[in-house]
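Contributing new records

If you add data, match the layout below exactly. Sequence lines come first and carry their own label; structure lines follow with theirs. Keep one chain per record. Anything else will be rejected by the validation script.
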Amino acid sequence: MKPDLISLIIPFYNEGRAVDLFFQAIDEVLAALDQYEFELVCVDDGSRDDTLHRLIAHAHTDSRITVVELTRNFGKEAAMTAGIHHARGIAAIVLDADLQDPPELIGQMLATWKSESADMVLARRADRTCDGALKRLTAKWFYRLHNRVANVQIPENVGDFRLMTRPVLDALKALPERQRFMKGLFAWVGFKTVTIDYVRQGRAAGTTKFSGWKLWNFALDGVSAFSTMPLRVWTYLGGVVSLLTALYALYYVTRVLTQGIDVPGYASLLIAVLFFGGVQLVSVGILGEYMGRIHEEVKQRPIYLVRAIHHQHALYAHETPTTARHSASHLDVHPGNHHE
């Protein structure tokens, strides 16, 4: 009986120093799991260092490795989507190349999947001491805020490191979003889910690609993708302000009729104008976030573009640039050839 094929999806972006360390660690783990067959879908997300060359070198010597080369840096969410589209396994595991997601957990994930008949196995960070205090605090705030205002709850301290079965992968491929917040999409599709805990380690090599500013924008994407509460807040605020204004107007008219007209203070007028001007600018900014998402969606651009696909048996074959479209259980092929 042919063993089950398990896909490992690994996004790479400027991880040249970590490539060799990653394959060394993953080879040791997979060697002990000989009851399964594995493929490694390595997505190069427009790396500017020698990541791609190192990945291709490993693909020369290991038939399990497929390197999906994107045309530029589309971001981790798009790279994960590319990996999901190219994964052929009955189940797939997404993990990072920096070894903060320990490959040693793969065996436990597979065992839990089989024993619990789960559709998705999540890896939850039970200990995040390797992260800075500020990052841990802001992550805690984000999860609480998101789960308070969003329609879909995302599990706290769970990243992208997870096992997903083929029905889950097919469901994700069918989702039409171009602005993709994968943690939310993983939760939105549902399915039977089991969680296991692990201790998150420090990076094996390299530095994080997420600055504070990128994390802030990532959090905004997460909230705006799964909640309209920020828009409703301004509706409620507008109603409260209108009510207070009407009450103040009634008070002022009554005062003029009973006590006559006095000269109001310009300071209070200036404060009121500036305050409500600021409120209006914030509300317009929030509205702009949602309009920006609509703007990106209606253009219907693909999530990513593939320049070439490299693997042992087709490294020198003509590759055709492909685009990921959301009809989405397949990849559309466009004219034009690329010779690697």
